[in-house]
Amino acid sequence: MGQDTLTAEPFFKKYYPFWDKLTEQEQRNLCSCSSMQSYRKSDFIYSHDGDCLGILLVLKGQLRIYIQSDDSREVTLFRLGPGQVCTLSASCIIREITFDISIAAEEDTTLLTTGIQCFRRLMEKNISVQNYVYKHTAESFSDAMWALTEILFSSFDKRLAGYLLEESRRTHSLTLSTTHEQIARNLGSAREVVSRMLKYFEKERIVQLSRGSVKITDPARLEKILEG
Q1: What is the pTM of this model?
Q2: Beta bridge partner(s), residue 207
Q3: Which UniProt keywords apply (predicted)?
């Protein structure tokens, strides 16, 4: 992890809808207690058991927010890209957050992190900040519930098809640089289950498998599986 020294104000103006509702002093305080950090792909950033990190604004790259079982199985709840904010990393000021989450960088990532004490003071004094944080946190819980619902109630072929299509759209490529283990981790499944389904997709000429990558050869079939 590294630190950058860029000016925070332009990013707050662009991405925080409550910026114009702050006094000039509050704006200065928000900037002064925020810092930029750079993380490399796969860096671990946060867990609920660790120190309260603060509010995270993604400037570049991508974060993966996930939960982990006692036997180290992981379930991805959602991802955050440039311009998106993570409030679940501020559990010490939102007492209603009682479940453990972890955050990791899925790509080389730059974050603008605002210290927790600063955000707590803003929430206490400014109702616009408080409303933003609680609304954003509720939306994050909605995303998490959707992910868990998919795991509980969707067939695995649909989940895998949806994942491959989503990753293809996100990366703007039909060739995904990933492993069966990474897919399993993101879908909260076993690697063997993922490998079996990918081999079936390959047999059906929907994908082409090679070491460290999955190439989608028939995206229309994946869409059909997802809709079926």
Answers
A1: 0.75
A2: 216
A3: DNA-binding, Transcription, Transcription regulation
Sheet holding 213-216, edge to edge: 175-176, 213-216, 207-210
Contacts of 188 (CB under 8 A, 6+ apart): 73, 74, 75, 76, 151
Strand 109-114 to 74-80 pairing: unpaired
SS3 189: coil
Site of tokens 């927010």:
65
**CB under 8 Å to 103, separation ≥6 — which residues?**
44, 45, 46, 47, 56, 63, 64, 65, 66, 86, 88, 89
Residue 122 has pLDDT above 70, yes or no: yes
Task: Check if the beta carbon of residue 115 is closer than 8 Å to that of residue 57.
Answer: no
Nearest residue to 51 (alpha-carbon basis) of 83, 84, 91, 3 = 91
Residues 93 and 120 sit within 8 Å (Cβ to Cβ) = yes
Could you report the per-residue pLDDT of 123-156, keeping only the tens digit for each? 999 999 999 999 998 898 888 888 888 777 789 9
Q: Amino acid identity of 57? A: L
